[in-house]
Amino acid sequence: MDYTSRRRGQGGLFEGLYRVIMRRNSVYVTFIIAGAFLGERAVDYGVYRLWEYNNVGKRYEDIPVLGQRQSEE
Predict the structure, then answer these.
(1) Could you tell me which Gene3D superfamilies the record lists for this protein (predicted)?
(2) What digits encode the pLDDT tens for the residues 26-53?
(3) How far is residue 44 from each of residues 18, 22, 37, measured CA to CA in Å?
(4) Which of 1, 6, 11, 72 is geometrically suited to a Cys-Cys bond with 15, CB 3.0 to 4.6 A?
């Protein structure tokens, strides 16, 4: 019984998350949707930067003579 009285006064990380995010369904669903959207954006940005870093000089934009026509003067 002494343990439970001490436990109620202290809130752990998961108990705090439960109180803030998971107590109401609408807040929880909003948190999941926003997290999925932001996570997708972060992964997309990271993969794009990694692909550009690995392909420097091999892309169409990096080759100066492709797609250019000589001017008629």
Answers:
(1) Cytochrome b-c1 complex subunit 9
(2) 989 999 999 999 999 999 999 999 999 9
(3) 29, 28, 11
(4) 11
pLDDT (mean) for 12-34:
90
Sign of CA dihedral 31, 32, 35, 37: negative
Residues spanned by the domain of 32: 24-65
Under 8 Å between Cβ of 60 and 66: yes
Exposure string over 51-63, b if 16+ CB within 10 A, otherwise e: eeeeeeeeeeeee
- Token pair recorded at residue 12: 């752990």
Among residues 49, 52, 71, 48, the alpha carbon closest in space to that of 61 is found at: 52
**Residue carrying structure tokens 């107590």:** 23
